[in-house]
Amino acid sequence: MADSSGRRSAELFDRALEIFPGGVNSPVRAFRAVGGVPPFMVGGEGAFVTDADGRSYIDYLGSWGPLILGHAHPAVEAAVADASRAGLTFGAPTEREVVLGELIRSAMPSLERLRFVSTGTEAAMSALRLARAYTGRTKILKFDGGYHGHSDALLVAAGSGLLTNALPSSAGVPDAWVADTISVPFNDLEAVEHALSVHPGAIAAVIVEPVAGNMGVIPPADGFLDGLRELTRREGALLIFDEVITGFRVALGGAQARFGVSPDLTCVGKIIGGGLPAAAYGGRAEIMRLIAPEGPVYQAGTLSGNPVAMAAGAATLRQLHTPGCYDRLESLGKRLEDGIVQAAARAGATVTVQRVGSMLTPFFTDQPVRDESAARRCDTRLYGRFLHGLLDRGVYAPPSQFEAWFVSLAHTERDLDQSISAIDDALRTAISETKAGSGPAAG
Ligand code: PMP
Question: Which residue owns the Cα nearest ligand 1 atom 12?
């Protein structure tokens, strides 16, 4: 029986707080940005998740991006069951790695060679090491609000979890380890050009989320990615696309296919593991040749290329070859975007929805959001109230203003329309609570 009080989640959270910092194993899950108790999940099917109190939600979190097919897709479940029966891990090469590697390269030809790892963090960290080795340079350039995992050198102005917790960077990272990390505003080519000219011959790589997803969804401005390509080529720096979110999300070939810009190195993750831990980095063969055992750049992993994760990823990517599936994701994304815009107009709420394909963010601001400083100006308290209103009405969205909502192929028009009417109600309630100065406080 559903317990609408959320008592079971509250009990579990109390226990979790006694064993995990903040009660969670990844910070944004703790709901600190929106207040309240995170629902503990027990099941997922298609576009829906169910929590420990028996409440069901239409899910727009999609486990933060991997679940482009929705939960428990039969082809993925069958592949995982088969692979598990054959053996969970060998620490030796398997055909499944080759199969998934080939599937990735056929969709993203710029990854002439690739290396599997287990997380996006490892992929980005390793791509940087490789870029430094290849160029013989030490500095890297990233963008404010860009998140590339939690390796030391990349925890500078690093997006959602840190925005949410208002940490400019992380404690425990020695200044010296980030001294070679330069961060400039997203969508600002002049700032990139300036940084490159101030540090001539010193910048090994520019790493960018080609569609920013970790400060809410921010599309690249016209010419931004082309400009990065041109500037890095001119300066002898590598261009790294972090497509951990956008790979297989904004097009089968990722943002590099959608925007027609080919990076030197690419990081992928999330979707390529089909819901299990898998990620990869790859790029030009001439650069990848430096990776051990072929070359001197060391990088390894006990569970890298894990056969069960490879099977889940391959089953997922095969489904994504279904003709028309990216058109469908586009039209579902558009329907949700339009629905939110119209609901906001009816509720008298000021919302700017930014979307690329099936990833979007409703920003509580009347301005377009082009970079992190604009994202920070959004009304995060209102987002917190809105999010709780959504949860109460059976819609699960990211518990932070600075994250992407994901639509999956399991969502139907009906699910979206039902969500839009919940959004309509939740917005009205959030606005009237804000006027009255009541409701759950956002942190
Ligand atoms: N890069 C990007 C663009 C990401 O969004 C994330 C995670 N959200 C990462 C890297 C890190 O991936 P992981 O959490 O698998 O370490």
Answer: 120
CATH architecture of 74-320: 3-Layer(aba) Sandwich (3.40)
Give 269 Cα–ligand 1 centroid separation in angstroms. Answer: 7
Q: What pLDDT score was predicted for residue 200? A: 95
Tokens of 398: 């990211």
Alpha-carbon span 442 to 306, nearest angstrom: 40
Mean pLDDT of the chain: 95
Which residue out of 121, 122, 126, 208 has the highest number of ligand 1 atoms within 8 Å of its CB and is therefore the one to mutate? 121
Selection from 60, 150, 170, 80 nearest residue 397 by Cα: 60
Tokens of 75: 């082809």
Whether 147 is catalytic is yes
Predicted confidence band at 164 (pLDDT cuts at 50, 70, 90)? low
CATH no. of 7-60+323-436: 3.90.1150.10
CA dist., res. 71 & res. 279, Å (int):
19
Residue 213 CB–ligand 1 contact under 6 Å: yes
Is the Cβ–Cβ distance between 167 and 147 less than 8 Å? no
Domain edges within the chain: 7-60+323-436, 74-320
> Tens digit of pLDDT for each residue in 335-374?
999 999 999 999 999 999 999 999 999 999 999 999 999 9
Q: CA-CA distance, 97 to 313, in Å (whole number)?
A: 10
**Catalytic residue list contains 270:** yes
Mark residue 6 as left, alpha or beta (left: phi above 0; alpha: psi -120 to 50; beta: remaining).
left
* Residue 298 falls in the annotated catalytic set: no
